[in-house]
Amino acid sequence: MTGTLKFPSQRGRPVMTTSPVERAADHFVSALAQWRVERGMTKKQLAARMGFDPSYVSHVEGRRHKPTEDFAHFGASQGTLSKRELPVS
To answer: Is residue 69 part of a domain?
Structure first.
């Protein structure tokens, strides 16, 4: 399919993304998961730190939900990810 990029998912299946917004969301989720793992945090701990439900964080990392703009900005404003660490497309 022309114009479609494939990115690996956590389950080894390709995730098809076609828009810049989808690619940015995928990049953000990857960066967030890496940030969390590098700090030895569980998804539950990250959710508590950000003030979000643990299932939402899990669904975002699992690519079942797209991260909302509020989720990304709240994470940055609370120091979960610094402005420099936020992925930019």
So the answer is: yes
Number of domains within the chain: 1
Host domain of residue 26? 20-89
CATH at 88 = 1.10.260.40
Evaluate whether residue 15 is within a structural domain. no
Instruction: For the full predicted model, state whether its pTM sits above 0.90.
Output: no
How far lies 3's CA from each of 18, 19, 21, in Å? 7, 9, 14
Angle at 82 between CA 57 and CA 61, to 5 degrees: 20
**Helix or strand or coil: residue 69?**
helix
Q: What is the pLDDT of residues 19-71, one digit of tens each?
A: 888 888 888 888 888 888 998 999 999 999 888 999 999 999 999 998 888 88
Following DSSP, what letter does each residue of 29-66 receive, concatenated? Answer: HHHHHHHHHHTT--HHHHHHHHTS-HHHHHHHHTTSSP
C-beta of residue 4 within 8 angstroms of C-beta of residue 16: yes
